[in-house]
Design brief:
This protein is an all-alpha fold and about 120 residues long. It has 5 helices and no strands.
């Protein structure tokens, strides 16, 4: 069942691409650059434009509805698996650092005890 809906979705998407490319844009579109199509001579220029526009709307709506339907109802569920991050337990303690922090051997002198150097 899943495969049938995916095949229908692919067919709808291919038809949508073809219909969009057939539409004439400001630059003439693909239909104008490939010698035009017979669609304009069959329906007339205005009716061909309306037909392609309505077909694009119907196919785009069908594409979105099919995608949502497949995702929400038809998509195989399977077992829910944890991700790799969720399967690893968090570390309980941090490992000790390999180099201990350097301890000063003598306490630092206060600013009042320091003598300014005269040069």
């Amino acid at each position: 069942m899943y495969t049938v809906f995916i095949v229908v979705e692919i067919i709808v998407s291919a038809l949508l691409v073809i219909v969009i490319l057939m539409q004439a844009s400001k630059g003439g579109g693909l239909a104008g650059s490939l010698g035009g199509s017979n669609l304009g001579t069959v329906f007339g220029v205005r009716r061909a434009s309306d037909f392609l526009s309505k077909t694009t709307t119907v196919l785009a709506t069908l594409f979105i509805v099919l995608a949502l339907f497949i995702n929400l109802t038809v998509l195989p569920r399977g077992e829910r698996q944890e991700s790799v991050i969720q399967s690893v337990p968090p570390p309980s303690t941090l490992p000790p650092s390999s180099t201990p922090a350097a301890q000063p051997s003598q306490p630092a002198a206060s600013p009042a005890q320091q003598q300014p150097e005269n040069r």
